[in-house]
Write a structure and sequence with these properties.
The chain is built from no helices and eleven strands. It is mostly beta strands and 147 residues long. This is F5/8 type C domain-containing protein.
């Protein structure tokens, strides 16, 4: 939502159609990103362009229509090659998503993750897997900011 990250730093494995480009996935933006398939290996990826300590993520559904992601996983990478799924208590964390299209749901990470790249991997959804996202974190110097 803060537009600190340029549009070209958003990417995805697939898009539903030209109305759902990855860079439309900003929180409170329009209309959101939607994948084209049903595979849970598809994702929205953001290059933060620097290493951040990520402490929370937030999601919304589509800005119009009745579509939203109800659960998802988050993956992190320092180099865009080696990826780790965020884990809590020894298991992959499944984040609670949305129950409607407008209200955003913020999830705080119990253990902040250091990363340059982040992926949102939709697992379950209502109608279509459409999402808008925000990443919250700090630069290693400690300044908290939405990205």
């Amino acid at each position: 939502d803060s537009h600190v990250i340029p549009d070209n730093r958003f990417s995805a494995t697939t898009i539903y159609d030209s109305r759902y480009h990855p860079y439309y996935a900003r929180l409170n933006g329009s209309p959101g990103w939607c994948r084209s398939g049903s595979s849970t290996s598809e994702y929205l990826q953001i290059d933060l362009n620097a290493v951040f300590v990520v402490c929370a993520v937030a999601t919304q559904g589509a800005s119009y229509g009745t579509e939203w992601v109800t659960s998802y996983k988050v993956q992190f990478s320092m180099d865009n090659q080696a990826w780790s799924t965020y884990r809590e208590t020894g298991t992959d964390k499944v984040f609670t998503g949305n129950t409607n299209r407008d209200k955003f749901v913020k999830n705080t990470l119990a253990v902040p993750a250091m990363a340059r790249f982040i992926r949102f991997v939709p697992l379950t959804y209502y109608r279509d897997p459409t999402m808008r996202v925000e990443v919250y974190g700090t630069k290693p110097d400690g300044m908290l900011q939405p990205m």
